[in-house]
Amino acid sequence: MSAVHLSAPDIDPKEVAYFEGLAHRWWDEQGPFWPLHRLNRFRADYIRAQLCRVFARSATAKQPLEGLDILDIGCGGGILSESMARLGARVTGTEITDKNIRVSQIHAAWSGLDIDYRLATARQLVDEGKTFDAVMNMEVVEHVDDLPGFLADCAQLVRPGGVMVVATINRTPLAWLMAIIGAERVMGWLPKGTHHYRKLVKPDELMDGLGAQLVLLDRTGVRVSPFTRAFSFTSSMAVNYMMLFRRNAEATEQ
User: For residues 90 and 146, what is the distance between their CA atoms, to the nearest angstrom?
Assistant: First the structure.
């Protein structure tokens, strides 16, 4: 069966083809996605803490996100989606390649998790009138073509009072040196070609694209030790960073 994938103005077909070729490796923690697995454990803890703070949940509860509707945009093989589902959330994971959706569905079935994986773009969800308590936009914005259009669509998917978490790489000389030259070409932590400097995203560009109805609640830099491969928080957002936004509770849905 030939591969199927979606097309839209904000989707780069070269990015689609690249990640289709790696789809079968998503859940190999020793394979090319090992940084994602380590990063996922780190960022899932951050998301858990932030969502519990925003929605007044107990972070020590076994399933603190129970009842929350979460969208994982660009879910890949489902690594973050499964983490959120295990915390009790109702998770929708979207992708633009059928290979990744198949990988996600099969692994969720193996794991006994009920996750709604869909071959869909953010624009399609907007057109369907979908909204969510929390939108996860992790390591996606640096792979789209029409960044303003994509961010505008993502913003509409957040319910009034809901949140969006964005994780990406800054467009700075240091990020080029660390994330592209260092991680891809020297250390081999990521396959060459994973990131392109011109498509990296500055924090101000995120804020402009999401609009005034999404208010910044938190931001932090993220660093990784070249010796232990452990992730940690840092005040510097010059390379990797995460930002938490909340939609005005009084805002009317688009």
Answer: 29
